[in-house]
């Protein structure tokens, strides 16, 4: 069904781009665009600026794979964190969830996804080689696989476990408490903290 | 409950501003920010540009009150529209809805809200004086009050009706009835009664 254009091309383009954000459909994108235009000074101007700064400054940490304005990121550079523990997560959103929970004071490694042969995602598509390198570099005594309790997540965990065999690192995983099929980003802080405290040997 | 900061101040500010958009809460704002950062070239850069253009170019039409990149707006300047009919709406979103429906080929007048004494919204807070002026200017034969069928909307409609008394314009309002595709069982009694009273020959 053809959609009539309701506004000039500049507004239409703003609506079209906003509709690509997760959680916003075409209708809510129109509402968001209108809200931005109405709140020009309070919202549109600062958001345009924040996005411009993000474009300029935010990149991927070459060490852990998270996003930040510095490389290495603030977490990797934080000397107060336990340098001997790496928490392996699928996605930056999971790292954020663990940091929000203040569940652990260690460093991370962001895989960027899970193994999924059906989708053509192999080990070379994830940050697995760099994880092995970090562990081979020494100084890492424990790798915590904080990976979603999905089939793909657990397949990925097993693959990483195999790759780390022979290195002097303990590989652990999150305790039961993560619902089967559940995703970290949806869990409350208490559950995340408990799951980390009760982590078990892989 | 204090929320731990999970990322640098630039990312936190982006998340915080995104969370002010209608339809996005704190959680979905984080997802949106991460999505933007990951899709830097495909989404963040163009959206930042589109917002910058919006900041520079988009303003309020001094004639009808809608938002556009030109003043008067494209609709007010469109010579192919019926110049003798004004459609009065509460909000730009309503104008957009009528335009999407291609419901009428006329011009609009955006009130910018409804009368609401309890919220301190009086006639002087809405674009009512400018509506009267447009009608006094001549050339307008019909004013269609396309105002929401809420108590505030109908109060506003009556107020405008009173103000237009004595001018040579017909004031009409939208028909009440069963929405196209609507199911009787879901409609309130007022709508059903109105729809029956205004029944038309099949
Ligand atoms: Zn890092
Ligand atoms: Zn206009």
UniProtKB/TrEMBL annotation, chains A, B:
GO terms for molecular function: DNA binding; zinc ion binding. Transmembrane segments: none annotated. Residues 84-179 form the Toprim domain. CDD domains: TOPRIM_recR (cd01025). Keywords: DNA damage, DNA recombination, DNA repair, Metal-binding, Zinc, Zinc-finger. PROSITE patterns: RECR, TOPRIM. One of its GO terms (biological process) is DNA recombination. Gene3D superfamilies: 3.40.1360.10, 6.10.250.240, RecR Domain 1. The keyword Zinc applies. A zinc finger (C4-type) spans 61-76. Pfam families: RecR_C, RecR_HhH, Toprim_4. The keyword Zinc applies. It comes from the Bacteria. Belongs to the RecR family. May play a role in DNA repair. It seems to be involved in an RecBC-independent recombinational process of DNA repair. It may act with RecF and RecO. This is Recombination protein RecR. It comes from Roseibium suaedae.
